[in-house]
Amino acid sequence: xxxxxxxxxxxxxxxxxxxxxxxxxxxxxxxxxxxxxxxxxxxxxxxxxxxxxxxxxxxxxxxxxxxxxxxxxxxxxxxxxxxxxxxxxxxxxxxxxxxxxxxxxxxxxxxxxxxxxxxxxxxxxxxxxxxxxxxxxxxxxxxxxxxxxxxxxxxxxxxxxxxxxxxxxxxxxxxxxxxxxxxxxxxxxxxxxxxxxxxxxxxxxxxxxxxxxxxxxxxxxxxxxxxxxxxxxxxxxxxxxxxxxxxxxxxxxxxxxxxxxxxxxxxxxxxxxxxxxxxxxxxxxxxxxxxxxxxxxxxxxxxxxxxxxxxxxxxxxxxxxxxxxxxxxxxxxxxxxxxxxxxxxxxxxxxxxxxxxxxxxxxxxxxxxxxxxxxxxxxxxxxxxxxxxxxxxxxxxxxxxxxxxxxxxxxxxxxxxxxxxxxxxxxxxxxxxxxxxxxxxxxxxxxxxxxxxxxxxxxxxxxxxxxxxxxxxxxxxxxxxxxxxxxxx
Length: 489
Ligand code: BG6
Fold this sequence. Notes:
Blueprint: E1 10-14, H1 17-20, E2 47-52, E3 58-62, E4 76-78, H2 87-90, H3 94-108, E5 112-116, H4 119-122, H5 133-148, E6 152-158, H6 164-170, H7 177-192, E7 199-203, H8 224-248, E8 253-259, E9 262-265, H9 270-279, H10 281-292, H11 297-306, H12 314-322, E10 327-331, E11 335-338, H13 343-347, H14 368-382, E12 386-390, H15 408-426, E13 432-435, E14 458-460, E15 472-474, H16 476-486
Parallel strand pairs: 1-5, 1-13, 5-6, 6-7, 7-8, 8-10, 9-11, 10-12, 12-13
Antiparallel strand pairs: 2-3, 2-4, 14-15
């Protein structure tokens, strides 16, 4: 299919600070939750490392993804220990490769680069009085390079890297104090970077705040009450940030961001259909609050039923109303299959597999048509511009004997997804701002904490334990995507 995208379409690429930057303790940066999580793999869960404050005893516990409980060892706080490897510490070492990486992205022809600012590089403890100048300079340099190569930065303010001090001292996002700290942080970056950045995203995958207690909410607890409060606090924080962004620069465009996992009902059994509809609230609830400016009735009812009480003020709801977002950003990798809750479902969090889809080595189904389906649904439901800010194919890429990385599987994946985006724009009339595939330069996996699960168009020569030259190599997909951008589709 011949594709000809709108002139202003933002062809891009995406990374996040804790998975890409490295330099975790350089130039005054404070520790974040990501800095105390070890590497892992598909088979081995990532761990938080702890130190007992009284006895000095060291220990680990599993990072409780998906409502998982985090076992907090007695009198201990999360601490960086000598005998463990923490992928965020060096990551892809963008810290020392900034010039080269931005040049490669410039040559690629990117129109947009989605990245995140690490809160702890700006406010090392999260609650500091004044910002860290070196952190400001670090991002100023990134933005200057974006300008040099004519790339628009699309900046996420929080991407799974809450300053660790906010966890230890305040208990993370369930504490309302974080609203003010976050708003101050946003005001600082909106103000410092107002001449460089127009596209902002508040919280990455905000809907994961109720499943990823440590990474997204900075909490050890996993009670429904705490999850609800953390989500509420982030809604208020995000809304206030949206209003501030507009005040500082009326050109600013601020989006919310969700992990979008389309769930097909497994059968036409009405119970399966209903279950799929109910589960779509896992992301729709967040979009409804952030786009429509109010809690949907089903959530209020649910909270009443479960005895969940939000610590809130009237002003919170006024701000949520007035601080709705300009656009919806979302990640889309795969889709799921949903059946009425049963034993099988409990066992497999990804749900039953879809016999019509191929999967990658990590079991993620490849569903480009689902992307068009999602674009149509989101656009009809919310009537806001949409931005696909993450999409991609994780694979254990390897260099061949000639030093080439022949990632035709990735080209195929991206090509099919781009075709579906094109159809959504031209056949369905969906307003799509752009497409920033994930990990345009290889970075560490968030889920498994390994480098092996690569998404990039640019290969970074480093292994799961941070050994390697960190040299950059263009993969076949780099040339292919360069051509796509040049020909606008
Ligand atoms: C998204 C996150 O959920 O998925 C990214 O926003 C993450 O940070 C991406 O890297 C892919 O997941 P993974 O586990 O393969 O890195």
